[in-house]
Design brief:
It holds the Pfam family 4HBT_2. By secondary structure, the chain is of the alpha+beta class. Helix content is 23%, strand content 31%. A five-stranded antiparallel beta sheet has the order 1-3-4-5-2, with helices on one face. The mean pLDDT is 95.
Amino acid sequence: MQSKDLTCTEEVRVRFNETDPLGIVWHGHYIVYFEDGREAFGRQHGLTYLDIQKAGFVTPIVKSTCEHFLPLRYGETFKIVTTFVNSASAKLIYKYELFNEDNKLVCSGETIQVFLDSDNNLCLYNPEFFQDWKDKMGLS
């Protein structure tokens, strides 16, 4: 398996409703930011949730981690760097790094998603459409 990294960088601005009474982004919103990163990654690299659904699959998250290092505040812009982690297993693994306007690491994390078919059966092997995508991206 090749070690080619596929990444996507998305810029986001903190909205007022994402902050807590302390004036910083509430910790639960970082998982939403990870979702923003996955959506942007899918659009950039041709692996959107709509593509996955069209192929007859869903990809629920089975694990997520998030480590916080610095706060984000209302009005700040930040970058979400999303990296696809290639795996032989039938899963989608993404790593995330969020950087503030000073390019300092705010938080990092990871999500793992599995493939379920239309009958909600866990896929033990890469679905054909996903393997085709990996081949196209040079990840096989």
